[in-house]
Amino acid sequence: MRIHSRVIGGALVATLLTQLTACGTLFYPDRRGQIEGKVDPVIVALDAIGILFYVIPGLIAFGVDFATGAIYYPGGTTAQVDPAKLKPAVNADGSIDNSKLQAILESELGQRLPLNDPRLIQHRGSVEQLASYGLIPAA
Hints:
Transmembrane segments: 42-64
Distance between the termini: 87 Å
GO molecular function: transferase activity
Helix content: 40-55%
Protein name: Polyribonucleotide nucleotidyltransferase
Keywords: Membrane, Transferase, Transmembrane, Transmembrane helix
Oligomer: single chain
Organism: Pseudomonas putida
């Protein structure tokens, strides 16, 4: 009988400890440190399940996830490339050579972007847009 109660006690302690550490903090430790963003519904559901079974540890799990920021989706990242480094990708008639642009972006950003993907939507710029970035059209 003593072993049976130890197994149940050990399972209860393990369950409570996992709820105290919070689901988002366990599953996505790289998300910690965020202040705001869009809330991840999977983490909210897992924390809510914790409230169903153990009210206090479930509330603590919510509190820990919100306090650490692990409950939020990761924010979008941005990258910038100096416009002067993009000039070799522009042809004399003003059109863009996708292979040269892809090579430049890969060397500058360290990521391979699929510029030949048929789903890629290309927007045409205007002289006003270039002027807003401080660039002079030279086509």
